[in-house]
Amino acid sequence: MKEPLIQCRDLGRTYQKGSVQIMPLRDVELEIGDGEFISLMGPSGSGKTTLLNILAGIDRPTTGELRVDGVDVTKLSGRRLADWRAANIGYIFQLYNLIPVLSAYENIETPLLLKNLTRKQRHEAVSTAMARTGITDRADHYPRQLSGGQEQRVAIARAIVSSPRILVADEPTGDLDSRSARDVLALIRRLNIDLGMTIIMVTHDEEIASLADRTVHLLDGQITDSPEKTGAVA
Ligand SMILES: Nc1ncnc2c1ncn2[C@@H]1O[C@H](COP(=O)(O)OP(=O)(O)OP(=O)(O)O)[C@@H](O)[C@H]1O
Ligand SMILES: [Mg+2]
C-alpha cells in the first residue's frame, strides 16, 4: 500500500482566551493520498479553517503530528516551515486576498520574489500560471478592474505559480455568482486532474462537495466520518 501524502495523527488545537480554553480541533486522524481531491464540510465554527491552516503550515497544532511526504511538519522551525510552505502549499481564499496596488501580473509574481529566480524565470512561471487560469489578457489590470471570478482566477494563478503539490482552498466560490463559481470549480478540478495537485477544499455546498473524490465532515472540531472511509487511501 502506498503511503499517503498527508497523515494527521491525533491533531488538536487549543486557544487560551483569558481563563477560557477553546478547542476548535481535537483527535483529528486523517490521511490524504497523493493527487486526492478532498472536500471539507461542517457547520460554521466547526474547525474547518483551523484544520486547513494547520495542513498548510500557517498554524501549528497544539497536539499531534502532521506528516507530509514523510516530513514531520510540526517539528520544522519557523524559517524552515516558511520554506516548506513556499515549496509545497498554494492557498486560495474566499475573498481572494489580492494586493490592491499591484497588477494581476504582479500579484501572481509575489510568491516567486521569495525565491532565487531571475526575472526571466519568474516571467515564464507567471505566464504559464496565467495561461492555465485563463487570465493572460488581464495581466495589467488591477484587482478593482476585475470581476470577482477574474479576481479568483488571479488568486488561483498566484497559488499555483510555484507549482505546489498541495492546494488548499477555503470556500473558494463562496463569494461568486453561480456561473463564475462553476468556472472556478472546473479550473480547480483541472489542476487536480491535469497537474495531479492534491486539493483540500472547504465548502458549505453539498453539490460542490460532490465534485471531490471524498468528503470529510467536521463537527465541533472532530471528524465525524467513519475511520474506514476517511482512511481510505489506495
Ligand atoms: N485565533 C483564534 N483564537 C481563538 N479562537 C479561535 C481562533 N481561531 C479560531 N478560533 C475559534 O475556533 C473555532 C473554529 O473556528 P474556524 O474558523 O476553524 O471555523 P470554521 O469551521 O472555519 O467556520 P466558518 O464556516 O464560519 O468559516 C471557532 O469557535 C473560533 O472562534
Ligand atoms: Mg472558516
Describe what you observe in this structure.
It is a single chain. The longest helix is centred in the last third of the chain and has 18 residues, at 178-195. The strands form two sheets. The protein has a six-stranded mixed sheet with strand order 6-7-8-3-9-10, sandwiched between helices. Strands 2-1-4-5 form a four-stranded antiparallel sheet, covered by helices on one side. It is α/β, with parallel strands linked by helices and 234 residues long. Helices cover 34% and strands 26% of the residues. Strand 9 (214-219) and strand 10 (222-223) form a beta hairpin. Magnesium ion (MG) is lined by residues 48-49, 170.
List the helices and strands and how they pair.
Elements: E1 6-17, E2 20-32, E3 37-41, H1 48-55, E4 63-68, E5 71-72, H2 78-88, E6 89-92, H3 104-109, H4 119-133, H5 148-160, E7 166-170, H6 178-195, E8 198-202, H7 206-209, E9 214-219, E10 222-223, H8 227-230
Parallel strand pairs: 3-8, 3-9, 6-7, 7-8
Antiparallel strand pairs: 1-2, 1-4, 4-5, 9-10
Helix pairs in contact: 4-5, 5-6
Bound molecules: adenosine-5'-triphosphate (ATP) and magnesium ion (MG).
Give the CATH class. Answer: Alpha Beta
Number of strands: 10
Q: What distance lies between the first and last C-alpha atoms, to the nearest angstrom?
A: 7 Å
Order of helices and strands: EEEHEEHEHHHEHEHEEH
> How many helices?
8
Q: CATH topology, what is it called? A: Rossmann fold
